[in-house]
């Protein structure tokens, strides 16, 4: 039997956590089939006439910059009905996870702007940087973009567990009664 790699388990944990948050708020949500390129979860209104989708990015708090891996394709994803859920699982499985719900046009702009800034600045030895497909969504861009950037430490706070922003796209079902 093949071992499942840690990144697969981390991704699945994030997707199921986001599903839990959506379902507990009364949204009708389902995991998209594996391999769908732009989203992981689909949410629909009760009558099925309104849809939105979520791309889930999950990380453990192990890196030095506190960010999430992104790719060049994320610069182009600007559909107002697609949201990202950036899940931070913390340092240990016992930590409370945090989720940042950000509209795709915002993410595309941040990724595009920060990468262009990175490319325009010289490397550690003064050399011109080579372009790549790799991008990072960071909780603080001041080191890269300076203190004038709108993406200073705390810029993600307005998106922390901000599920209300999807209510205008797809209303949740009536709240379920708590079971004892």
What does this structure look like?
It is a single chain. With 180 residues, this protein is α+β, with helices and mostly antiparallel strands. The chain has a single domain (6-166), classed as Trna Endonuclease, Chain: A, domain 1 (3-Layer(aba) Sandwich), CATH 3.40.1350. Helices cover 22% and strands 21% of the residues. InterPro entries: tRNA_endonuc-like_dom_sf. GO terms for molecular function: nucleic acid binding. This is PD(D/E)XK endonuclease domain-containing protein.
At CATH's second level, what is the architecture?
3-Layer(aba) Sandwich
Q: How much helix is in the residues?
A: 10-25%
- Enumerate the spans where pLDDT stays under 50 for 5 or more consecutive residues: none
Determine the CATH topology.
Answer: Trna Endonuclease, Chain: A, domain 1
The total of beta strands comes to 7
Tell me the structural class: alpha+beta
What is the CA–CA distance across the termini?
A: 40 Å
Largest sheet: 5 strands, mixed
CATH class annotation: Alpha Beta
Spatial sequence of strands, sheet with the most strands? 1-2-3-5-6
- Average pLDDT, all residues: 90
Count of individual helical segments: 3
SSE sequence, one letter per element: HEEEEEEHEH
Protein name: PD(D/E)XK endonuclease domain-containing protein
InterPro entries: tRNA_endonuc-like_dom_sf (IPR011856)
GO molecular function: nucleic acid binding
Organism: Paracoccus sulfuroxidans
